[in-house]
Design a protein that fits this description.
Two copies of one chain form a homodimer. Chain A is α+β, with helices and mostly antiparallel strands. The first copy, chain A, folds into three domains: 248 residues, BirA Bifunctional Protein, domain 2 (2-Layer Sandwich); 113 residues, Rossmann fold, CATH 3.40.50.800; 78 residues, Translation Initiation Factor IF3. The first copy, chain A, contains 14 helices and 28 strands. In chain A, the strands form eight sheets. The first copy, chain A, has an eight-stranded mixed β-sheet with strand order 3-9-10-16-13-12-11-27, sandwiched between helices. In chain A, strands 20-17-21-22-23 form a five-stranded mixed β-sheet, sandwiched between helices. In chain A, strands 24-25-28-26 form a four-stranded mixed β-sheet. Chain A starts with 25 loop residues before the first helix and ends with a strand. Chains A and B meet through strand 2, helix 2, strand 3, strand 4 and helix 3 of A and strand 2, helix 2, strand 3, strand 4 and helix 3 of B. Strand 5 of chain A pairs antiparallel with strand 5 of chain B. Chains A, B: One of its GO terms (molecular function) is ATP binding. Chains A, B: It is an enzyme of class 6 (ligase). Chains A, B: Catalyzes the attachment of proline to tRNA(Pro) in a two-step reaction: proline is first activated by ATP to form Pro-AMP and then transferred to the acceptor end of tRNA(Pro). Chains A, B: It is found in: Cytoplasm.
Chain lengths: 522, 522
């Protein structure tokens, strides 16, 4: 079983770097990946996490590439205040009902000593009007839009911000649901419904393509059912990804807000005939939650596997240092290799390479990088250097493909010239694997009994069902929601790009009008 | 006076785009530049501003280049919580005294209706321990460091975060002093004083070079006098820039914190002999305040002038559209020009070019871009296109240099090939101009009477004085501070890179030990 060229024992000689397997306890496995890959940790501040360099590095890569897409669409970045006066929330009643509950409320602007050596909020410094730490920025951005927009010539107004937001959460889970999280929120204003809907769907398509291209995470882009709409929205769209435990993760949303927010904030324009009109607005957002999606899509029993496009390091070089004079020569060889790789371009950017010179043993360091999910690991020993070779490990193949699971020896120049292609292959392979799993775990059903039977089966991670429905509203919809709730299920979305419907609604038995996905969800 | 080639009236035919001149009312001029260049505006939320696309675009360029420098120094980005439990502040008593006063305090986590149609903080949802919106993150990052550091092998620990912070300010001024602002804060831990001091000075030198290179803003790097230290710091260093009104602006700080914060947060390591030691820590930061410095360094009576290295657009192309069929040909010519420019590289990055196709008249749009301070403006009319020419305006020369103040005609290919050099020249010219003005406005004094006389002279913007002093402490220092305060003066810093001292202290008449700058300041 030894790879004769590299002379190394197969990686599988030490099997699995984590103590919990996905199939045994997915939630525990998720926490373990985050800890072992050093992505984030609890901060000691309720509901807030510390994002560590590896986790933040992935976010930076995601940000950079998403931001390029946002700019390419002509959207301009701004920055709006963290604090929103309480009265802004009251302006938009429906919005208040849905959102204005669990939020961080600033009531004082000074601390003083209480005379017993403790600090307390100064009763003399109570704010006249409490400030809310933004849970989302429609209201404060709406106020700015009402100042910025006068005439049809100012439209469309396309803005975005990268910011932190706070939603007080009772039960938190790192990346998926934290009281504070990082996100981008796009906010746009248009002259009419058509323009706003076009933007809503453009953002949705941007998210779909980003998730599938950059994150190698297959998603379904579609409209949320009425009961899952963003408070105040006329229509909410989402991308939904299937995690390895079969649950759905909403990984991005785009809302057509109609003229409701424009009425609340007074966002009006003079049309070309001189009449005052209300704008049609949109908002759309993605957040650090996507990192949770990345972990649960690509992680395996050895930790994370990061798609190369968003990996902080795409290649890690591990010189097998022996604390001897020969190390200098080995390091020079590795440094040459690093330079040659950095000069290569993958996905339109220079290849990101780390030469890891830390004093620990290469085999120990190897497992650290395996857990972090670096796409390509190169171990370079004295024999490799002398022979002008590299020993390469592809993280995506660690276990999936027994024949290729181990280090492969290659002439250095050959590796350098095919490094970018190798990274692109890994990106595609991760997508293909996730896509195949997702598709294999969606089952078409035509009656509600089939839904019940599907989720009652003795299968730990059942996946989703795809059904046809008649898009009921009002009490009929409420009945559906309750029926599903009893099974811990929710409707995810109605896909935009779906086969035509042919049968009856699984709930109402009336003629179906569209497809809908039903699943357990995060 | 007409430039015969371009056939255009000289730009100076319409003199000055702003209504306030620097010499008449500098503070008013500053607000006007920000408004007219569309950089930022009041948000309606007390002390918080909205940063608009042009201001935020400059910040993004600054961030990108500063971040490259931070990463190149081996510092890793993380993200720490927005909220800091009140008790964390109490741990570090000196820190509390200096900082823990004007801060935003979160006391509730829920809003409810009060039964009269208004929202109020829910008395049932009062936090057991109030949370502070971070004014700076030493305490919360110190808590993380105490978890992350075990042994000397974990040192140095080098972290940075890009974040928003809040310091409740009574009097605010856009970019210079706002309740919420954006910044980066570096936090590092080291085994000993030497390592920490080296990092403190490395960060300071990074800031100096960034200010002078990227922002074309000359600064003095030096140590703050004891009375101006960051609360809890052993030594505080700063970069100080001179604004056009002669006042000083502290544009970045770097602190050696000794072991005080390490004691407060329990940041300890086991040294190579197995003994427990406290770490020596540092922190260093720069913020959106630098944008204020940029405006007051480079702005002129027509608005902002942005140094090309941080300009969101370095070149703006204005086609002189006439709403006629010929426009198509003109636009095609401009688009070719844009593509040719984007393929050029300035300061190691592709040239950033905007082709401004908005329907307004080119001459109107021109003034918008002049006020925003785009380094190069190209106006292209039908005659330019037919002749394969461009008409170029260098923003830095709009008034300074009468002979070159107007549009210059150039063959397109020639302009394209020298565009990068032109941008580099503008960058240097802005620095040289600011440097010359700064140096001309520093006066050496050798007695305190000379200081009094200098600031009593009938000169609106007197500048700084440079003196020698004996670095008094305790009551002697307090006396100096009060003496200066009576003249509305402060000591800025003692330059690291200064001529040797030769005389006596202007305050104590004891032998001087170092130089110090004294000025009015923001």
């Amino acid at each position: 079983m030894h790879n004769t060229f590299t002379g190394r024992a197969p990686v599988s000689a030490i099997r699995h770097a984590l103590s919990t397997k996905r199939e045994d306890d997915f939630a525990q496995w998720y926490q373990e990946v985050i800890a072992e890959a050093e992505m984030a940790e609890e901060s000691g501040v309720r509901g807030c996490m510390v994002i560590k360099p590896w986790g933040y590095g992935i976010w930076e890569r995601m940000q950079r590439r998403m931001d390029d897409r946002i700019k390419a669409a002509g959207v301009e970045n701004c920055y709006f205040p963290l604090f929103i006066p309480l009265s802004y929330f009251a302006k938009e009643a429906e919005h208040v009902e849905g959102f204005a509950k669990e939020m961080a409320v600033v009531t004082h602007h000074r601390l003083i000593g209480d005379g017993e050596g403790r600090l307390v909020p100064d009763p003399e410094a109570k704010l006249e009007e409490p400030l809310i730490v933004r849970p989302t920025s429609e209201t404060v951005i709406g106020a700015a839009m009402s100042r910025w927009i006068q005439s049809w010539r100012d439209l469309p107004l396309l803005t975005n911000q990268w910011a932190n937001v706070v939603r007080w959460e009772m039960r938190t889970r790192m990346f998926l649901r934290t009281s504070e999280f990082l996100w981008q929120e796009g906010h746009t204003a248009h002259a009419d419904r058509e323009g706003a809907m076009e933007e809503t769907l453009r953002a949705l398509e941007m998210y779909r393509d980003f998730a599938e291209t950059e994150l190698a995470m297959p998603v379904i882009a579609g409209e949320k059912p009425e009961n899952e709409r963003f408070p105040g929205a006329v229509a909410t769209y989402s991308i939904e990804a299937m995690m390895q435990d079969g649950k759905a993760l909403q990984a991005g949303t785009s809302h057509y807000l109609g003229t409701g927010f424009a009425h609340a904030a007074g966002i009006q324009y003079q049309d070309s005939e001189g009449a005052q009109q209300y704008c049609h607005t949109t908002s759309w957002g993605t957040s650090t939650r996507m990192i949770g999606g990345l972990i649960m899509t690509h992680g395996d029993d050895d930790g994370l596997r990061v798609p190369p496009m968003v990996a902080p390091h795409q290649v890690v070089i591990l010189p097998m240092l022996r604390d001897k004079p020969e190390d200098a020569e080995l390091l020079a060889y590795c440094e040459d290799l690093r330079k040659a790789l950095v000069a290569q371009s993958a996905f339109g950017e220079p290849v990101r390479v780390l030469l890891d010179k830390r004093p620990a043993k290469a085999t120990q360091k190897r497992w650290g990088w395996v857990k972090k999910g670096v796409p390509l690991i190169l171990e370079i020993g004295g024999r490799d250097a002398a022979g002008g070779q590299v020993s390469m490990l592809r993280r995506d193949r660690l276990w999936n493909d027994a024949a290729k699971a181990n280090f492969v020896g290659l002439p250095k120049a050959e590796f350098v010239s095919r490094a970018a292609a190798e990274l692109e292959e890994i990106q595609s392979a991760l997508y293909a694997e996730a896509r195949e799993r997702r598709d294999a775990n969606i089952t078409r059903v035509s009656t509600f009994e089939e839904v019940e039977a599907f989720f009652a089966q003795d299968k730990r991670y059942p996946g989703w069902v795809e059904a046809e429905w008649s898009r009921p509203t009002g009490e009929d919809l409420e009945a559906v929601v309750q029926k599903l709730k009893a099974l811990k299920l929710t409707m995810r979305n109605t896909p935009l790009d779906a086969d035509p419907v042919a049968g009856d609604c699984i709930f109402t038995r009336r003629p179906a009008v569209e497809r809908i996905y039903i699943a357990r969800a995060y």
